[in-house]
Amino acid sequence: MLYASGLAAQDMPYARRVIDTLTSNIMWGRGYTNNGMTKAATYIAGEYKAFGLLPLDGKTYKQQFSFSVNTFPGKMDISINGKSLTPGADFIVLPESVGKKGTADLTQKDSVTFIDPLQRIVVVLKEKLTWSVAQLQDAYTGIEVSRNAIQELPERISFDIDNLLAPNFRAENICGIVKGTKKPDSLIVITAHYDHLGGMGEKIYFPGANDNASGVAFLLALAKYYAANPAPYSIAFICFAAEEAGLMGSKFFTENPLISLDKIRFLINVDMVGTGEAGITVVNATEHPREFAVLSQINAKKQYLPKINSRGKAANSDHYFFVEKGVPAFFIYTQGGIDAYHDIYDLPKTLPLTGFKHLFNLLNEWLVTAMF
Q: H-helix or E-strand containing 130?
């Protein structure tokens, strides 16, 4: 057998170290300022090399590509009704916003929206602040403000926001492989995106512990194991950049593949696997009923996870463009636990990793049982 109960438990300290590293301020949210994404790419490539993975193309672990992205590297100052607000905790700037400095009197448009149409300022009150990434810059400045941050309706705003549209931001997919001992031309692919949202201004970054430092830690733990215990078939490990910018890394890979896509027996994409109290969900389960049935049967026998939920096709992570090219794939994420998502509270100290070792052992056993 290629799996062993307790294997993941032994590697839990390693997984924690990976998550702590990827969420540190050195990585700055693994995004578009302070070289955060580049630093994360270099770290992951170093882990591949330390394990003994081969570059997927036989030359380098890094597959470079570029795209446009709107960034916020500098000033991020907002005050409403004379009260200074804290970035990330009290407000976020909409990712497509243009930088602007000044003051404005706001007119109420509806119960949550306040505007200055001449200066093209929009303020929206929100129960929860959730940030994202935009590839393009728009002609207005949008600010979402937490309802808990101000006591009265916003009437006057002062703002000093810097933005920089990067038309050719360079990013890298990190691609390695462990050659199979008997069927090296038959491929299993494990994927996870390593990017997150980066920083908003000079002082605030989004750690992205669950999304998706947890998935990278899971992928690296599998890579470490299979590098030491090669399977009969080859296993490729790909960490994608720019998932948060619109699945850009996986899209580029499928359009410029380093392996023949028709040789992929199955692809497993992991994203947000840091919880597990409520089990896992498997996207594309309805598309591959035999493989899903085997996964469910193993879990029923071993009681690894409390529940495995079936879901149909969805374009919600890096598996999508592979599926569109005819590659059979599952996208797996855990459920339950923390509800931090795309905010400054997705921290390693609050990430329980409840189902981490159980999912690790379940997939190890499934790779043996379902594939050959």
A: none
At CA 246, angle to CA 243 and CA 248, rounded to 5?
65
Count of Cβ atoms closer than 10 Å to residue 92 Cβ: 29
The closest alpha carbon to 190, from 11, 331, 2, 9, belongs to: 331
The H-assigned helical ranges of the chain are 7-22, 36-51, 214-228, 248-255, 289-302, 320-324, 356-371
138-153 pLDDT per residue, tens: 999 999 999 999 999 9
CA torsion sign for 81, 85, 90, 95 is positive
CA nearest to 62, candidates 181, 205, 173: 173
Q: How far apart are CA 300 and CA 294, in angstroms?
A: 10
| Residue 233 near residue 180 (C-beta atoms within 8 A) | yes
pTM > 0.85: yes or no: yes
In this predicted model, what pLDDT tens digit does every residue of 321-333 receive, in sequence order?
999 999 999 999 9
CB 75 within 8 A of CB 160: yes
Torsion of CA 277, 281, 282, 287, to 10 degrees: 150
Query: Which runs of E-coded beta strand occur in the chain?
Result: 54-55, 62-71, 76-80, 83-85, 91-93, 100-105, 107-108, 113-116, 121-126, 141-146, 156-161, 164-178, 183-193, 233-240, 264-270, 280-283, 308-311, 329-334
The helix or strand, by DSSP H or E, that contains position 230, with its residue range, turns out to be none
